[in-house]
Hints:
The structure is a homodimer. By secondary structure, the first copy, chain A, is of the alpha+beta class. Chain A has two domains: about 10-95, Hemagglutinin Ectodomain, Chain B (Alpha-Beta Complex), CATH 3.90.20; about 100-160, Roll (Nucleotide Exchange Factor Grpe, Chain A, domain 2), CATH 2.30.22. The first copy, chain A, is about 55% helix and about 20% strand. Chain A is built from three helices and six strands, in the order H-H-E-E-H-E-E-E-E. In chain A, strands 1-4-5 form a three-stranded antiparallel β-sheet, with helices on one face. Chain A has a three-stranded mixed β-sheet with strand order 2-6-3. Chain A is elongated. The N and C termini of chain A lie far apart (about 85 Å). Chains A and B meet through helix 1, helix 2 and strand 5 of A and helix 1, helix 2 and strand 5 of B. Chains A, B: It is found in: Cytoplasm. Chains A, B: Belongs to the GrpE family. Chains A, B: This is Protein GrpE. Chains A, B: Its main location: cytoplasm.
Amino acid sequence: MAPPPADGATAGPTQRALDAAEDRWRRAAADLDNLRKRYAREVAREREIERELVTSAFLPVLDTIDRALEHAAADPESIVEGIRTLREQALAVVSGLGYGREDEPGVPFDPARHEVVGLVDADGAGTPPGSVASVVRPGYGAPGRQLRPAAVTVAQRQES
Amino acid sequence: MAPPPADGATAGPTQRALDAAEDRWRRAAADLDNLRKRYAREVAREREIERELVTSAFLPVLDTIDRALEHAAADPESIVEGIRTLREQALAVVSGLGYGREDEPGVPFDPARHEVVGLVDADGAGTPPGSVASVVRPGYGAPGRQLRPAAVTVAQRQES
């Protein structure tokens, strides 16, 4: 692969250094190629591991659902308490994964966290214009990592 | 960085080829280093994306829990139906993520999918020795990707 030496030295020190340099380069290029292939496999595997971890975190919620159903026939009243436990458990999982719940009315409207699904009169809602009057569906996420915005109604000034 | 040419040529064709080869090698080594750093960042980001996707898949289950609680006070009976919906929804999420539920009694005991939590008499259980008599807690997983084994009691031959 090395060009024939034009300065007369058949295998002088410079030629040997050239061979060594070309060899190093070829190995670095091969390493680069191997690294690319290895990482492509690793990324797929890492995502699978994450999927397994997150799904496993939700399995106790499924267990609670199973138990709530088993007890439902025996005692329909106890099931309300069961669902309350279920909600706390599910919220603890989501919170443990790093995501908060956005369900506070009265806070200033923030387009990054809220999705407007309705407008209401500020006087009737009892909250200042431009604030969240009610949360129709809670939002979940972390700063910069929104899973979904909260669906809210926003208080506006009454047209006069 | 190149060693001084020992064969007398100050900048002959071989020397120039050597310089070019060393330059190529250094650039390949730098690419390799950059790629390593970039992939380390990407793997972290890919896991975050997967966590967001899986958690988002469970959000409708949280919504159903919220709604079930809201309706509980008005109609305690309807809540049993609500939990049944909840279970179907949660199982559909887990199944959609690629994991099945292992809750069948009567199947042959399989150490890869079952964890023994008790032994029962085969005649009393009505299932053949070596089979699963009852499932105490369902297992979840896919072939080779077990999230957790099913906790089961296993039927055994009566000591005589």
